[in-house]
Design a protein that fits this description.
single chain, 169 residues, alpha/beta, five-stranded mixed β-sheet, 5 strands
Length: 169
């Protein structure tokens, strides 16, 4: 039996709404984000999960806890699901970064994709044959899908807050 991975993005945060580059900061969901997480919980209420995994950043943990509560499951956290480290772009207004050169302290694409591959290996190894909900972030989720499908990052469509995509590992 294959592992079924339900890959979700966290609910909207204060910084998402303000277009601030969060990167690996903890983040705080806003009311819309909590409503999105509650809607996700309702959408997944009839699904059976063996485990719930989240990024160790608070915005993902909070989303995962809202969903996991109705399934009676604890949330396991891992730094493998953290958002991309945006280095000195972290905390900046995203539209103002458009034409700026990328600083050297941003997590490289190769490092991000390698982390995504390690996450997939972790799930395959530790949750073989299980149904797993994993709550991550926009860019790491994109990287996970790029690795899984053997695509370039730009070929993977952006995930909206609390969107779920299912991968059969």
């Amino acid at each position: 039996m294959n592992t079924l991975l339900f890959l979700a993005r966290h609910g909207e945060t204060v910084d998402n709404a303000a277009q601030i580059m969060q990167g690996q900061t903890q983040g705080q969901m806003n009311d819309i984000g909590r409503q999105q997480a509650a809607q996700l919980r309702n959408e997944l209420a009839d699904k059976q999960f063996d485990a719930v995994i989240a990024s160790d950043l608070y915005r993902s943990v909070e989303t995962a806890e809202i969903v996991a509560g109705s399934h009676g499951l604890p949330v396991v956290t891992t730094p493998l699901l953290r958002e991309r480290d945006w280095g000195s772009f972290t905390g900046r207004y995203i539209p103002s970064l458009k034409n700026e050169p990328w600083p050297d302290d941003i997590e490289s694409l190769d490092a991000l994709l390698a982390r995504a591959a390690r996450f997939l290996d972790f799930v395959r190894r530790d949750y073989a044959g299980k149904r797993v909900l994993a709550v991550g972030h926009g860019i790491i989720n994109k990287a996970i899908q790029a690795v899984f499908y053997g695509k370039q990052m730009r070929e993977v469509e952006r995930m909206t807050n609390c969107e779920v995509r299912i991968l059969e590992l």
